[in-house]
Design brief:
homopentamer; 211 residues; mainly beta; 8-stranded antiparallel β-sheet; 4% helix; globular; binds calcium ion; binds zinc ion; ConA-like_dom_sf (chains A, B, C, D, E)
């Protein structure tokens, strides 16, 4: 597999990536729009899993920093957002249903927001002044400890993931409400309705289990 | 009793099989439509029990594999779906009410879905590429460890079971919602409204206790 | 007091028997319609108590079997229905409100149903083929261990009981829903709206506390 | 202070007595209508407190019996109603909101009813045949162990009390529902809308905190 | 920074102060309207935090009394209101959502009210007859143990605070309901829509996370 290969964008509306088994070699690699270094971002996605251990939701690695952006569920139910290798923690309410997440960060204040099913957690901050590396390996299903590698089956996702979108700025409250409700705002880094991706290992594209 | 005997199909609409006592010899044997080996299936049924031990919901055995299809409630509240002798596990919410189950499997991906009261559990997979044996002994009320036998009273059902239907393909989300709500989709393997069955032991056909 | 004495039927609509104190000599004896031996029955009643110990809800004794019919709350919250001296057990949800019970039994299958506040518990069976003795002593407020006697204050009811009706057949789902909602179906063994009864000890007829 | 002194009746509608601090000398003494010995009564009132210890809600003492009528919250959440020095106990649901109580008693049966926020507890009985002494000292905020005295700060009320009304008979279900909903039935022993009272110590008349 | 410096009032409607990190030097100092010594007050504000330790919500210090007014969350979930150095305690229901508080005090009775999300806690009293010092240092984000100082990072706020208003009298029930619902009553000590403030350390003005 060549993660730098060019692939056609596909409309994934109504579909999900399904990882039905624990593994250390099943994943999806996403190709971002050509971008300059980011001073802010919003990532939204929906996940359905019954894992009780750690797992990665979104792993954005550069050649020098494997946790350049990382959305991660810890085993104690603490959710972490990492930027540039630093971490902040959130304690969302537990849920056994498909769950929608949006994470935002801006360099000017360092403030991180996490929205769970359309509700904001308390804001935290980290890496004020940082710029995100532009050449990134963006992986679903595995957590990178190296650029497109360093996978650990004990941090892999088992379940469904979909509606993955990414913007180069912080969405407003109203925009996040709309995204949570299923609306769209022409995401300019990753666009679920025109997604360039390559699948590796035991991962399937199936109809979404959520409405 | 001759499980290979021909019997007239009966409309069981509004009715249920009632197993009012624990036993190792009360059961119902169902006769499937003449079928070729299956590459996929959906089985739906409704069960009402207050058992706190293990019990079988649907036991489909072939001469070489007693757990060719098995829907089974474990004693810890873990629900298992077996295909071709392999198992995956689900943790549905606990319920003391009559509960509707749909289980699906397809050979191409091996993905198993379990729907409990119209809600999907997280998908798992097993036995990718397998074909289900066509000549089967399909039993309600007992778990088979041999073709039409090998019963264990500690795995028998005590309670009501009804609305048992089976298809040779995976139903869509919309179809499963309709089935859960009481609608029908001409099931082509087992059809509750034209059911060929034989009862053995202390089992009764009574009006359903659910609406 | 002469339990065989003839008394006028009274309309108890909107009223309840109140047992405000624990005792071994306060009770109500009910006179049934002249009946032949029963092959089935439905008994419905409403009880309001804050007892945490065992107590009897309905005690129907013959000269040879004190537990010919017995509706009984055990101390662990397990409810039992006895017919002809045999018992089956049910685990209704706990309630601190006035609670409506209907118990049914039929000789042909032995199936016992228990409906609590209009919801059916899982069916059980006992005494298939049995006939209920017709000459019975029917007592509210005490549990009989002998014909019109053998009372135990630790099994007495403290609280209110009302809407006691009995039929010589099994009511349908629709009929039980109607009875639970306050409707009536000309009960032919005991009729709360034309009840023959005698009170003994500290028991009072008062307005119902339920709507 | 002279508890036998004559004072003008005041309309306390929309107001409450507030005891903001624990004490053994803050209380309100109420003057009842001239009455003959009572054979029945209903007392209703509303209380808002966050005490977790014992406290008195309504203390009606005669020269020979300090607990002639006593509404009292025990430390285990057991509520007691005392008449003529005897006690019965009730277990209302716990509440952290302002709570409305009505207690009734009638001499003919001895039956005591307790209504909490418009819902009846299970009836009990005591002091059948008793008559309540007419010359009484009626105190809010303290529990009397002697006529207008014998106070204990550990039984004092800290919080708000209001809507105190008393009748010389047992109200019907409909009347209690109306009183709970804020309606009135010309109370003839104590009337919150024409209340004769004297305050002593740190007690204030303030707007009600409940609607 | 010069807390006595004059600054222009700003309309903070729809905005919040965000303290994204624990610190001992991030805070906001508010400038009150020129006032005479206060005999009563109402302070309302909204806070969103996931702290499980102690923290200050509103710290109003004079040169002689650092806790002249202090709204403070204790680590056990007990909320305290301090006036003139004395404390009363309240136990509000736990909440993980943004929470609205109004605290009132009047000198004439000493009564303190606390309203949490529009619901009154049980009233308490303290410092009857006291007058509040007029020359005050009013701080958000830190708890003062000295005039504009004596900060402790273990009592700092991490999270959002907004809608801070203060009056020189006790608001009525209706007024507090209106404030909770987002209405305004020309606050005459501190006015969120015309707020004079200076920020120090890592604190940001951001859009509110609550509606
Ligand atoms: Ca990593
Ligand atoms: Ca890793
Ligand atoms: Ca087996
Ligand atoms: Ca077996
Ligand atoms: Ca007995
Ligand atoms: Ca007995
Ligand atoms: Ca006393
Ligand atoms: Ca006392
Ligand atoms: Ca301080
Ligand atoms: Ca301090
Ligand atoms: Zn002072």
């Amino acid at each position: 597999m060549d993660p730098s290969g060019v692939c056609q964008p596909l409309n994934m509306g109504g579909k999900a990536f399904v990882f039905p088994k624990e593994s250390e070699n099943s994943f999806v690699i996403l190709t971002a729009q050509p971008t300059k270094p980011l001073k802010a971002f919003t990532v939204c996605l929906r996940v359905y899993t019954d894992l009780t251990r750690d797992y990665s939701l979104f792993s954005y690695a550069t050649k020098t920093q494997d946790n350049e952006i990382l959305l991660f569920m810890g085993k104690t139910g603490m959710y972490s957002v990492s930027v540039g290798g630093a971490d902040v923690f959130f304690k969302p309410p537990e849920s056994s249903a498909p769950t929608h997440y949006c994470a935002t960060w801006e360099s000017s204040s360092g403030i991180v927001e996490l929205w769970v099913d359309g509700k904001p957690m308390v804001r935290k901050s980290l890496k004020r002044g940082h710029s995100l590396g532009a050449e990134a390996s963006i992986i679903l299903g595995q957590e990178q400890d190296a650029y497109t590698g360093g996978f650990d089956k004990n941090q892999s996702l088992v379940g469904d993931i979909g509606d993955v979108n990414m913007w180069d700025h912080v969405l407003s409250l109203e925009e996040i409400s709309t995204v949570y409700a299923g609306g769209t705002f022409s995401p300019n880094v990753l666009n679920w309705r025109a997604l360039r991706y390559q699948m590796s290992g035991e991962v399937f594209v199936k109809r979404q289990l959520w409405p």
